[in-house]
């Protein structure tokens, strides 16, 4: 292993960082090292400006006319294409709407309907829970359907895929460990058995480049409030490959997905293409904040983003393992950078208390039950110096036992 850089070298790394100027676009509270952009991305000046304009001019002054004059009606599709660029989806295949959970529901039903002679959904026991919960909900409404889970029914997801499987629902980057799956290989494997694939990109979009079209993916879903910085509860996205568009059925057949919503026809007729994944009226103010956030992404080179992300996570792992050795932290994320998303997790029996102590000292990461300290590294606004400083504070908390203060053991509702 190469020697750890000293702080002068760290400052030089920040000075040479091609994404350095991006940090100015964001509203970063002073004195805070924010390593939780994988849970809620930071606000940007552009998002605030869009929100302000949408509220005061478009809603405040122009009212109902803004559906036409301010592009409100087409916003889910327009923003969908802009998210699409970041995930390797050609235009017309991605729409921004609803939540990731709801989009998982729609994608699962659509996929099952495309494989009417099959009844099995495959997913991961270690998935972000909502994916499993939604799959359980789908299974409960489809007689004969069943769910197989990696880690429960077999050790590896590949072993669960056979000719009875309709769809594989899988996370690209695991929310807890940050482990990255091989999208092209698993998609190919599913297709060899005649199954479809839904990729959950919540920890991918805005964190690393991905090529949905190139990997021949069927469906994908994901958040915009994590690495894309769209704001709390910002609408999610759903992607469906164009080859499926003619055959997709949408279980939530609301009027926004209708072919002619303003004809007010008596019966449902599915709209063209990805539009049919819409259901009802969308949250325009949230979409407008997201639009501002996406304006920043138009200037980002995804290869450079990935390189910096790996630089940050490599440095964090090396510094923690060197400076915090002997304090019981165990790396939960892949050491191999090619298998890592943009986060690093360490386990520790007192992970909750340690994270609370870190937050009290201005280093915000998060805790995932039962014993994970999770740190997200958002290349647009996290500096190498922040990584260094976070480790200095973590080491101090561990060495002094500061985390043992009783107030750090009090559990909040959201961790
Ligand atoms: C954050 C996250 C979700 C969140 O779903 P919501 O419906 O937006 O609450 C879903 N899946 C994964 C993998 C996530 O990380």
UniProtKB/TrEMBL annotation:
Protein name: Kynureninase
The keyword Hydrolase is assigned to this record: yes
HAMAP family, per database record: Kynureninase
Any GO BP annotation: quinolinate biosynthetic process
Enzyme Commission numbers on file: 3.7.1.3
GO terms assigned for molecular function: kynureninase activity; pyridoxal phosphate binding
Main EC class the enzyme belongs to: hydrolase
Cofactor: pyridoxal 5'-phosphate
Cellular component terms per the entry's GO annotation: cytoplasm
Catalytic reaction list: L-kynurenine + H2O = anthranilate + L-alanine + H(+); 3-hydroxy-L-kynurenine + H2O = 3-hydroxyanthranilate + L-alanine + H(+)
Keyword Hydrolase found: yes
The organism of origin for this protein: Shinella kummerowiae
């Amino acid at each position: 292993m190469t020697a750890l850089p000293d702080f002068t070298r760290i400052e030089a790394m920040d000075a040479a960082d091609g994404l350095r100027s991006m940090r100015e676009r964001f509203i970063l509270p002073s004195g805070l090292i924010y390593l939780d952009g994988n849970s809620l991305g930071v606000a940007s000046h552009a998002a605030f400006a869009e929100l302000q304009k949408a509220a005061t001019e478009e809603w405040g002054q122009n009212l109902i006319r803004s559906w036409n004059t301010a592009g409100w009606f087409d916003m889910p599709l327009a923003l969908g294409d802009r998210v699409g660029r970041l995930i390797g989806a050609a235009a017309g295949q991605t729409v921004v709407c609803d939540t990731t959970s709801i989009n998982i529901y729609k994608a699962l039903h659509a996929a099952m309907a495309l494989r009417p002679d099959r009844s099995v959904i495959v997913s991961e026991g270690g998935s972000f829970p909502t994916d499993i919960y939604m799959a359980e909900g789908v299974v409960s409404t489809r007689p004969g359907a069943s769910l197989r889970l990696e880690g429960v029914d077999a050790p590896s997801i590949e072993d669960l895929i056979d000719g009875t499987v309709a769809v594989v629902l899988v996370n690209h980057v695991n929310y807890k460990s940050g482990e990255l799956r091989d999208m092209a290989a698993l998609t190919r494997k599913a297709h060899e058995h005649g199954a479809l694939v839904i990729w959950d990109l919540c920890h991918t979009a805005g964190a690393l480049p991905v090529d949905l079209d190139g990997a021949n993916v069927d469906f994908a879903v994901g958040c915009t409030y994590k690495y894309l910085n769209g704001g709390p509860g910002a609408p999610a996205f759903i992607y469906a490959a164009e080859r499926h568009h003619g055959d997709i059925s949408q279980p939530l057949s609301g009027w926004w997905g209708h072919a002619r919503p303003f004809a007010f026809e008596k019966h449902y007729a599915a709209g063209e293409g990805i539009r049919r994944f819409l259901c009802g009226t969308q949250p325009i103010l949230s979409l407008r904040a997201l639009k501002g956030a996406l304006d920043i992404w138009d200037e980002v080179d995804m290869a450079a983003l990935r390189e910096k992300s790996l630089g940050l996570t490599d440095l964090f792992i090396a510094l923690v393992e060197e400076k915090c050795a002997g304090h019981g932290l165990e790396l939960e994320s892949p050491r191999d950078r090619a298998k890592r998303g943009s986060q690093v997790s360490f386990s520790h029996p007192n992970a909750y208390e340690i994270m609370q102590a870190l937050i009290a000292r201005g280093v915000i990461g998060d805790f995932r039950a039962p014993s994970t300290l999770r740190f997200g590294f958002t290349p647009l606004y996290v500096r190498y110096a922040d990584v260094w400083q976070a480790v200095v504070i973590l080491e101090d908390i561990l060495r002094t036992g500061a985390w043992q203060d009783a107030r750090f053991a009090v559990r909040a509702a959201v961790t």
